[in-house]
Amino acid sequence: MVILTGETLTLDEVKRIVMDRESAELSKGTENTVSKSRETVEAMVSEKETVYGINTGFGKFSDVIIDEADLETLQLNLIHSHACGVGEPFSETISRTMLLLRANALIRGHSGVRPILIRQMLALLNAGIHPVVPQQGSLGASGDLAPLAHLALPLLGEGDVFYQGKPLAASDALRDASIEPVTLQAKEGLALINGTQAMTAVGVVTCLEMERLLNQSEQIASMTLEGLHGIIDAFAPDVHRLRGHQEQVDVAARIRSLLQDSRLTTRQGEKRVQDAYSLRCIPQVLGASWQTLNYVREKLEIEINAVTDNPLIFPETNQAISGGNFHGEPIALAMDFLKLGIAETANIAERRIERLVNPQLNDLPPFLSPNPGLESGAMIMQYTAASLVSENKTLAHPASVDSIPSSANQEDHVSMGTIAARHAHTMLGNARRVVAIELICAMQAVTHRGVDQMASQTRELYKHARKMVPSISADRIFARDIEAMENWLMRYSVG
């Protein structure tokens, strides 16, 4: 079980809750903090103070005063009108992450909601009821309005969910799980949708998957070095110490460790003086990708504990202050930055694939084919990798540099952070497929060189990966191999 305080959640704890299915519960004392914030809102309602989002309209309608008798209707109308996302739904993993992060933000006690609303979100999370949330429709300010409106609907017994592996009406899922729908009160609809939890959830999932992929890339690149008789001298510690980037130093050290007992690597001048950049510069390129990931991880761990709605409630001073914490710019810029690290991880992997299959660049069978000419071998796998890398280059264009005014120009600068996060996640999937193709080709190369001469650690990788994709003894439908390897990489953890 993970205890939520609203301030201490880590990415590792998100993984435990979202992917490992540990339960999440409120920490002791947080309900009291949330209740004080709620009491402040109720006092403002009873004293008929004019406060944005409590007894006014939204956006350009902020100067429209709402009668007290209509405040619950105002909040329900907000959820209904803003639930206009389109496109394919986010994965259950991302939807689950959104639920967790929105609950964690409300726990801080600056949103003015009742504790029952947070308990409802955690009840759905722990019961495995995941809202169906369309991917498209957010500008990233005022937060992720459309996606979070879809996230909110099942709390009320409306909309659709994924439950027990299939789509279902939320009302049916709540009934099956013995969870009663809630009715929104003043401020609560706005508190549910004014935040950055869609872009942040996608960012968190992408970050966790990217960490796994970078570790795998180092192992697979090490196998490629063996398949191409790569020169180990380029990974000498003194070389990387002189550059000074710790991530580069660390990548070189891990590759030296992976290959320490290999009989397939060579020394400088033994077969050639130096290797091509895609081999020699693995630490420099993957080290830089690790730098982007580390930056993004830092920003995400701030954001998953942030209060990002509006207005913010301050019970100690009885204030409701309108600000802009819903603006997604910090995450938008971070995700656009991560896209570059993802792109370069795939770019250099594709170049290593080319060196593995191109007979003009190695002494292996042309295209790793068992019968060159009659059989094409891995020729078109390199085409696929090149296509994926090219697609990533178009997706790497920064979404955060764009802005389109909305709400009659009241909201005149937006982040497009959710687009940046979605593109990063798409790119990560493309990169994983490229790395899967490199692994297939690297395994074929070391099969030709002699598996018994591999380093013990890369041979262990080979042993497990060979269960997914057999050796190429004849042409076959290689799309199935790529898919099998990609799916395995999504589960495989570097030991």
TrEMBL record:
<protein>
    <recommendedName>
        <fullName>Histidine ammonia-lyase</fullName>
        <ecNumber>4.3.1.3</ecNumber>
    </recommendedName>
</protein>
<dbReference type="GO" id="GO:0019557">
    <property type="term" value="P:L-histidine catabolic process to glutamate and formate"/>
</dbReference>
<comment type="similarity">
    <text>Belongs to the PAL/histidase family.</text>
</comment>
<dbReference type="GO" id="GO:0004397">
    <property type="term" value="F:histidine ammonia-lyase activity"/>
</dbReference>
<keyword id="KW-0369">Histidine metabolism</keyword>
<dbReference type="InterPro" id="IPR005921">
    <property type="entry name" value="HutH"/>
</dbReference>
<dbReference type="InterPro" id="IPR024083">
    <property type="entry name" value="Fumarase/histidase_N"/>
</dbReference>
<comment type="pathway">
    <text>Amino-acid degradation; L-histidine degradation into L-glutamate; N-formimidoyl-L-glutamate from L-histidine: step 1/3.</text>
</comment>
<dbReference type="InterPro" id="IPR001106">
    <property type="entry name" value="Aromatic_Lyase"/>
</dbReference>
<keyword id="KW-0963">Cytoplasm</keyword>
<feature type="cross-link" description="5-imidazolinone (Ala-Gly)">
    <location>
        <begin position="141"/>
        <end position="143"/>
    </location>
</feature>
<dbReference type="Pfam" id="PF00221">
    <property type="entry name" value="Lyase_aromatic"/>
</dbReference>
<dbReference type="GO" id="GO:0005737">
    <property type="term" value="C:cytoplasm"/>
</dbReference>
<dbReference type="GO" id="GO:0019556">
    <property type="term" value="P:L-histidine catabolic process to glutamate and formamide"/>
</dbReference>
<keyword id="KW-0456">Lyase</keyword>
<dbReference type="InterPro" id="IPR008948">
    <property type="entry name" value="L-Aspartase-like"/>
</dbReference>
<feature type="modified residue" description="2,3-didehydroalanine (Ser)">
    <location>
        <position position="142"/>
    </location>
</feature>
<dbReference type="InterPro" id="IPR022313">
    <property type="entry name" value="Phe/His_NH3-lyase_AS"/>
</dbReference>
